[in-house]
Write a structure and sequence with these properties.
Elements (H helix, E strand, L loop, with lengths): L6 E6 L7 H14 L3 E5 L2 H7 L2 E3 L27 H13 L4 E6 L1 H14 L3 E5 L15 H22 L2 E6 L6 H10 L3 E3 L7 H13 L5 E6 L7 H12 L4 E5 L11 H19 L5 E6 L2 E6 H6 L6 H10 L2
Helix pairs in contact: 1-9, 2-3, 5-6, 7-8
């Protein structure tokens, strides 16, 4: 990229994640420090097309680091998926003289950014903001730590009820395509079984594990299920298992969107701040079509193509550990 960066825009897109506001704050303050003009785009790509773009300064991002959600709002845009929609978005950015954009979001956000950059030659840098932690090239994504803390707190409360009534609880957490949330929640809460999209746990294996628990005089159990489980969600699995062990002892809880909300953890605030800072520095260094990530505590830059298309593996070692610790 040869063009000097003078004006940048920042936006959030896709699902919200705790810590997005901390990232916005870091982008605005780092860019302002370097003498750049900063604009905010409201409601992601939809706002870009509709022209909901306005200046944002350091005062505008005061007192937001602790807030969940995103002050920039977010959405998913079908119009931006079209070449005509992207052309309108380009015209809106060009009219304001915006030289580059920082996109905070996940896989879909970066897919749109890569296509847009290739068509219109406006540099984009991505910040990984998704609770699923499933983006290749970064150890953690913004929102993941907060989401598992929220889930573990909920499971701890459910465990009290399970213990009091000698019940088996199937607890469903988010994770349509990846089991990072389920695995961390299960280990952190001491679950007896963790069911993730990456493994092929069967109902028979679950029943066998429960029977072993009964032999050890274990009167209650907690099973964590990722929503993208290959054998179905918590309700479906519970129905099959309860046919064997009895419906009166089986309960289901779906934590759902509780995991998205709430104040970001200290870990997510720090991560978001580093990534926002790194994103501005990437643009100033001439980077484009890359995601800022953290590997072994160091900032790295991953091409959008890799972040989008390469699969981030779930650690087999941690999976194996979870089975041993649940015995």
């Amino acid at each position: 990229m040869n063009k000097e960066i003078k004006k940048i825009a920042v936006f959030t897109s896709g699902g919200d994640a705790p810590g997005m506001n901390a990232a916005v704050r870091a982008v605005v303050r780092t860019a302002t420090y370097h003498g750049l003009d900063v604009y905010r785009i409201q409601r992601g790509y939809s706002g870009m097309i509709d022209g909901h773009i306005e200046p944002i300064g350091t005062k505008d991002v005061g007192n937001i680091i602790h807030r969940g959600g995103t002050i920039l709002k977010t959405s998913r845009s079908e119009e931006f998926r079209t070449k005509e929609g992207r052309k309108i978005a380009y015209e809106k950015l060009s009219a304001l003289g915006i030289d580059a954009c920082i996109a905070i979001g996940g896989n879909g956000t970066f897919t749109g950014a890569e296509i847009f950059t290739n068509e219109h030659n406006i540099p984009f840098v991505g910040i990984p903001g998704t609770i699923d932690n499933d983006l290749y090239g970064t150890d953690n994504t913004i929102g993941f730590d907060t989401s598992i803390n929220t889930a573990i707190e909920a499971v701890d409360r459910i465990r009290d009820t399970a213990d009091s009534h000698d019940r088996l609880f199937f607890i469903e957490v988010m994770g349509r395509h990846a089991g990072f949330i389920a695995l961390a929640t299960g280990i952190g809460s001491g679950a007896e079984t963790i069911i993730v999209p990456e493994s092929k746990t069967s109902e028979e294996e679950i029943i066998a594990t429960l029977k072993k628990g009964v032999e050890r005089k274990k009167l209650f159990s907690v099973i964590i299920v990722a929503e993208g489980s290959p054998i179905g969600g918590a309700h479906k699995i519970a129905e099959k298992v309860s046919a064997v062990i009895g419906k009166d002892k089986t309960r289901v809880a779906v934590i759902g969107h509780l995991q998205r909300g709430g104040a970001p953890s200290a870990v997510d605030r720090m991560l978001a701040s580093r990534l926002g800072y790194g994103a501005v520095n990437a643009l100033l260094a001439g980077q484009s079509n890359v995601m800022v990530g953290i590997q072994d505590r160091n900032i790295v830059y991953i091409p959008f193509h890799d972040a989008i298309n390469k699969k981030k593996p779930l650690s087999q070692d941690i999976l194996d550990m979870s089975v041993i610790l649940s015995q």
